[in-house]
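By way of example, what follows is a protein record of this kind.
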Amino acid sequence: MAKQYTSVEWKKINDKLDADPGKFGFPERIYGSALVGSFNIRKLGSSLSRNSNTWEFLARICRQYDLIAIQEIMDDLSGINRIMDLLGSEFGMVVSDKTGVYPGDNGLGERLGFIFRWKTVERGEVISDITFDRTKVLQIMAENYEAIHEVMEPYAKKYANYKAGKQGKPRNIKMPAFLSFIRQPYCVSFKIKGYPGTRSYDFMAVNAHLYFGDYMSDRRQEFHALMQWIIQRVKNNNKAYHPNFMLLGDLNLDYDNPINDRERIEEAMKNYNKVGSLETNPKKRVNINFPFLDVHQGETEVYRTNARLSESFDQIGLFFKESNTVWPTHDKNKAMGGNKVGPDYGVFKFTDLFHEALGLATSIKNMSSTQKKNFFARFEHKVSDHMPLWFRIPLPQ
């Protein structure tokens, strides 16, 4: 394991960030707006797993937000509690139980959590996992019975041999249909407070860390299932606690080559929009917007969200009725950033910050494979292998 950054190196990093935070996309706190974001902090577990400078840097990031969704929280909460101690009493936290592995079984389960600023955000009463009930699962199995049987029969034989001690545990199989989430998405109600005398802005925040496995089809099935669940909930929200939803997290979208992938993803998003916006009943029409799939007006390509600058796994998605005038529709994305209080979006590019602060001569793009390996190894396990996203919302007037 590569050596963590030293205190001297961290001083250079923080000094460089202090000198020009906007250069690296570090979100500015602006009166009249709220900052919502998402950050996959790699294996956020024991408080002893990182040095004090790293914990302070992670807390510095979280302190900028009014509400931030955190993925990859381990069962050991001492690490995120250390961040909370650094943040102080201004902030609150809510965290799910471990998901992704059955209690007692081998495997790496995770928690999903939110950190929020009490002054601008109020947590609501509704907190829940997102699941498919047994009736829905049975329907899916019935509709795909032959295909499921075809892959399950050989798996069942291998599993029987494994239980009998005749072979190792069989690997996951390529499922022909979605049955359940690898990690249950975590849904929490929040209110963003407006100016005194105004109504709060209320929504359900969904924190998700979707499947990243051997098969791309499994990834897309899980993403589609979550999209359909949220869309149907927003469409039929007469009794929903809050009418609008925001999806934040590591969705593991296949978007490493925007030129090739953009058309496919755009077509998928248009289909989702069609489900919501072409509803004949105006009260059920839903707008869907994923700003990070578009090129920000200040950039030349879509934001990369992993630390190696090759993928856009992390996303923020908006699902809302036409009456919501705070969140932007898809056609407004290209103009975002023109208003100081938002709406706007971006990524804190700490990879570029580290590279520049440490005075590395070779650009990341022109580094050899060995140079890249050594550069990323210094921080992708201790800071993270993902960069934090932010979305700026004007406060309710």
Q: What stands out?
A: The mean pLDDT is 91. The first strand starts at residue 33 and ends at 44.
